[in-house]
Specification:
CATH topology of the largest domain: Rossmann fold
Number of strands: 18
Largest sheet: 7 strands, parallel
Helix content: 25-40%
Number of helices: 13
Shape: globular
Low-confidence stretches: none
Number of domains: 2
CATH superfamily of the largest domain: NAD(P)-binding Rossmann-like Domain
Distance between the termini: 45 Å
Radius of gyration: 20 Å
Mean pLDDT: 95
Amino acid sequence: MKKITVLGAGMVGRAMALDLAPNFAITAADLNPAALTWLNQKNPAITTVQADLSDAAVLQKLIAGADLVLSAVPGFMGFKTLKTILEAGKNVVDISFFPENSLDLDVLAKAKGLTALVDIGVAPGMDNIFLGYWNERMKITSFECLVGGLPKARKWPFQYKAPFSPADVIEEYTRPARYVENFNLVTREALSDPELLEFEGVGTLESFNTDGLRSIIFTMPHIPNMKEKTLRYPGHIEYVRVLRETGFFSTEPVEIGGQMVSPLALSSKLLFKEWKLGDTEPELTVMRVTLQGEQNGQPKTVVYHLHDEYDPATQTSSMARTTGYTATGAVNMYFEGLFQEKGVFPPELVGKHAECTNYLLKYLEKRNIRYQLEEK
């Protein structure tokens, strides 16, 4: 039986560990003992290890016996973790949302003869997969991804809950957003260009710029217009902008009563209770991916719709399902030999292969995650 080490046992990490456990020998590692205890109670066959994954020496020892590593660490430590995994000579599937360019590690991965599938989640992830697939079949002139994870119950003031760290959410709200317009790379502040849009089954949502294009800025330079925007309930971004502009997300310490305090650390602590998604709290994931261009000399539009909700049967959040099961699908796809190229590969370079795209869609469908395709 192949051995897989899962780094991170948060909502997404544990969903992945449980999904893979029937067919692989799983070791799950996290610093939080409560997360590991929860996972062990769900499936005692999973080996759990409490470990500081930011310590390279600890990490190398932890993954020494693994046939593949599945990384779901927080974004701020994602790039360093990926580099350590590759230096240790391990193939890897990675869903950590780090700001650095993963393609900078391509030379290392190739030199080691390794496969690294990165950003294999929902978005980034499946949206890139679709882009890579259709890029082989039509001339694309426009790519747009609208995506968001939302609680079903709208609680004032933020009307938002997250299945992952508030620090990672805040990163989305502070990292400058890049998009491509008429072949030009445009950088705007996050939360800019708000639009009200309608989504079936949800109603009106607000979209705004976030830095979600990531690798496709570099891998798809021939597409003149590309944009990713995040979705929230109307009103959310106004409260977040107030916090950001007031300095609550600053990393520069301020003195309070003789103590130096990080505004970001304090904000993350306070927002944790506001934004933490309960283990059995209903939520949903909404995504709309639109590709426009031409095929065989005729105008063509392709739209993928996703509406997925919390699964009460498995007590798994939609964001954990849609993100995590895409990654576990990629793990199975790798071990079944569908993708064996060496180097660092973001999803669009995987999706170009029809057999890989179809495999992931079928894998997700078996878990009741369905993308509706509309062609015009």
